Each structure stands twice: as structure tokens, then as C-alpha cells.
């Protein structure tokens, strides 16, 4: 991209949720271009990562930078510390609810996650993602 090209930045906070072992950290690594861990370990706290994706709108030719802030928190940590979930949800624009195709229980857990992550009055986008 030429350095003289002006690009507006659009910011989004994305919370990645799901049972332990479904691939939350691997998805965040994949989206940010980092190496995917070979061995599973539960995230011991809250991890955030940032990725910028440039886009050019077809109709107007306008260039934007999407600034995605990805929030990943270990399931057990969220259960132990009451402040973790509200911190992850605070000002979130989207929540990715992950399940693993190799763990049927993680798919069934989506219905348990929905009530605690759903408020009809907010405008948060919720996506269910199979890994």
C-alpha cells in the first residue's frame, strides 16, 4: 500500500469463547498470523492480540484498516474469577462461540454459553464457529 494513501481505521473488539480445548488460542494465532501451538495448554489468564486487515471498498475505492482486538480467556480462569467474563464482554462488538467437531460436548455447551453471553438489548454480533 502506498504510504501517501490515507486509510481510516475501523476498530472491533472480538471475544473468543468456548470450552477448553476447542481451539480459541489456535484461532487467534491463525487470524493474527502467529504460529499455532503444537501442544494444547489451557490459557492461564486473558490473552489479547491485535491484527490489522486492510480492505479496499469496491464501489468507492475507499481504503480501510480493520483493527481487530481478539480476546481469549481460559474457561477455568473465567469460572474462578468473576471479573474475567465481564471484562471480555465489555464493549465487545462480536463474540465467536467456538466448538470442536471432534468434541460433541463442546457443541452442546454452546446452548449453555448463549444465555450468559446474550442480552437482547445489545448489538453484539454472535457467531458460532466449528473448529
TrEMBL record:
GO terms for biological process: cell projection organization; exocytosis; protein transport. It holds the Pfam family Ras. It comes from the Eukaryota. Keywords: Cell projection, Cilium, Cilium biogenesis/degradation, Cytoplasm, Cytoskeleton, Exocytosis, GTP-binding, Nucleotide-binding, Protein transport, Transport. One of its GO terms (molecular function) is GTPase activity. Gene3D superfamilies: P-loop containing nucleotide triphosphate hydrolases. Its main location: cytoplasm. It is found in: Cytoplasm, Cytoskeleton, Cilium basal body. Belongs to the small GTPase superfamily. Rab family. PANTHER family: CILIOGENESIS AND PLANAR POLARITY EFFECTOR 2. This is Ciliogenesis and planar polarity effector 2. It comes from Electrophorus voltai.
Amino acid at each position: 500500500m502506498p504510504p501517501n494513501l490515507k486509510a481510516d481505521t475501523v476498530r472491533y473488539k472480538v471475544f473468543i469463547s468456548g470450552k477448553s480445548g476447542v481451539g480459541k488460542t489456535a484461532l487467534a494465532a491463525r487470524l493474527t498470523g502467529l504460529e499455532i501451538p503444537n501442544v494444547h495448554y489451557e490459557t492461564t489468564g486473558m490473552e489479547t492480540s491485535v491484527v490489522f486487515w486492510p480492505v479496499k471498498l469496491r464501489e468507492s475505492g475507499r481504503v480501510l484498516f480493520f483493527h481487530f482486538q481478539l480476546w481469549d480467556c481460559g474457561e477455568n480462569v473465567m469460572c474462578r474469577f468473576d471479573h474475567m467474563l465481564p471484562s471480555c464482554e465489555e464493549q465487545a462488538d462480536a463474540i465467536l462461540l467456538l466448538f470442536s467437531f471432534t468434541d460433541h460436548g463442546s457443541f452442546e455447551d454452546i446452548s449453555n454459553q448463549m444465555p450468559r453471553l446474550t442480552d437482547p438489548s445489545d448489538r453484539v454480533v454472535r457467531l458460532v464457529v466449528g473448529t
